[in-house]
Design brief:
alpha+beta; Jelly Rolls; three-stranded antiparallel beta sheet; 2 helices; elongated; binds calcium ion
């Protein structure tokens, strides 16, 4: 026979544990933890810039060239997988690679990527993103891969991410920026 006090404790434990267990299997919990469909990866382009799902191919995917920049998939020094994306400046002035990501306006997103300078240049960086309330503005100033993480609030359904081999007009033809392991996720 269960003692009255032990019975009460047992009843309380059951009352607490059942809802907790249900919640742990719920979409809300999975979304909060970044699991499952609650918080999908939005950089889903099959490209050299592999996303955390490992969706890597030897190609540039939806990454385009801005200002006649040469954008290629490179095997030289990937951060993740076998390829990285390399943008090479044609005239040292505002040359970049960019990608449009479909988002929900008025929400917050976290953009992360690894980037580094290539074999030439001192003017790599990123800014002039559109579809956001305030664009990030940063330099890429190392020849070693560095993790960049930017939280942005959208004001459009299209987030345009720009990463520059020549972030201003002070670069030179042949300047390089290399990026890999790009991720775009809603902050929830
Ligand atoms: Ca890669
Ligand atoms: Ca240019």
């Amino acid at each position: 026979m269960v003692q009255p006090l032990k019975g009460k404790i047992l009843a309380i434990l059951i009352l607490v544990l059942i809802p907790l267990t249900c919640w742990a299997f719920s979409p809300a919990f999975h979304g909060m933890m970044g699991m499952g469909s609650g918080n999908p990866e939005l950089h889903t382009t099959a490209a050299a810039t592999t996303d955390p799902n490992g969706n890597e191919v030897n190609g540039t995917g939806n990454w385009t060239n801005g200002n006649n920049t040469t954008v290629i998939s490179s095997i030289e020094d990937p951060y993740a997988g076998n390829y990285a994306l390399k943008a090479v400046s044609n005239d040292g002035s505002y040359d970049r690679t960019e990608i449009s990501i479909t988002v929900v306006s008025g929400k917050s997103y976290r953009v992360t990527f690894y980037a580094k300078r290539g074999s030439q240049g001192t003017h790599q960086g990123y800014n002039q993103w559109t579809g956001v309330v305030v664009s990030p503005n940063n330099t890429i100033d190392s020849t070693n891969y560095t993790l960049y993480s930017e939280d942005v609030t959208t004001n459009s359904t299209t987030l345009l991410i720009r990463i520059y081999a020549s972030v201003d007009n002070g670069g030179a033809a042949g300047d390089e920026v290399i990026i890999d392991n790009v991720s775009v996720k809603k902050i929830i």
